[in-house]
Amino acid sequence: MNRMITSHVKADLKLFMRDPMAMGFTFILPAVLFIIFGNIFGSESYGGVEYFQLYISAMVAIMILNIGLFTIGLQLVIDREKGVLRRLKGTPLRPWVMFTSILLKALIATFVGAVEIMLIAYFMFDAPLTDHLAAYTLMLIFVTICFCSFSLIITSFAKTIGAGLGMAFVLMYIMLFLSGVTIPLEIYPETVQTIAKFIPLYYVHDALQLVWRGAFSLSDMTHIVVLFLFAALSLLVSNRFFRWE
């Protein structure tokens, strides 16, 4: 069974690396944005916290967003429309093996992207890295799995590639601008700040950035609970509405 998962992960990674859109959204776009914003705002601070202490994790969160929506959610829609999922259903490959492989691919891509952002921050901007790397790694695994579970909703409800692409872009723009990863929530009206609490990327970003700064405490366990509930609900919905063809 381990060999089956390993083989499926290798195949998924090969397809991922051959997809220009997936590679661009996952690694190139966040890195370019990070370099541009770092040159513009790198000397700023927000609420007494330096720019890079906040936005290293923000860019990692953007990578997780793109991996979840496009590398997983949209890719499964494409595979279903092309008949790939139908053919897989007729093989000895069990559904849990396929989804385990997908999550492992997402984790590998997330770690590569996170290391890319950290190297850019360290070598280009001389920004200090976290003293809590082990805790940050564990949190990165947790939030990636939770968010990727949420992204399966796209696969469950989008019947065509066009519908999946539309859903992915709508969710992407809503989360980019209302989760705090690009624009600090403090500048928004209180109503918008309240709406942000219903967006999973808000908790992904906030949890990562708190752990990065060593400021995560028991009072912040709400982030863990909410992300777990998002993931559990998403899996229940996906299990109910997911179709192989």
Overall description:
The chain is mainly alpha-helical. The protein has helices at residues 2-17, 20-41, 51-81, 84-89, 95-125, 133-157, 161-178, 190-196, 200-213, 221-241; strands at 45-46, 49-50. Strands 1-2 form a two-stranded antiparallel sheet. The chain has one domain. A hairpin with a 2-residue loop joins strand 1 (45-46) and strand 2. Helix 3 packs antiparallel against helix 5 and helix 3 packs antiparallel against helix 9 (200-213). It has 10 helices and 2 strands.
Concise account of the structure shown:
With 245 residues, this protein is mainly alpha-helical. Helix content is 78%, strand content 2%. It has ten helices and two strands.
Features:
single chain; 245 residues; mainly alpha; two-stranded antiparallel sheet; 78% helix; globular
Overall helicity: over 70%
- Sequence of secondary-structure elements: HHEEHHHHHHHH
Structural class: mainly alpha
**What strand line-up does the widest sheet have?**
1-2
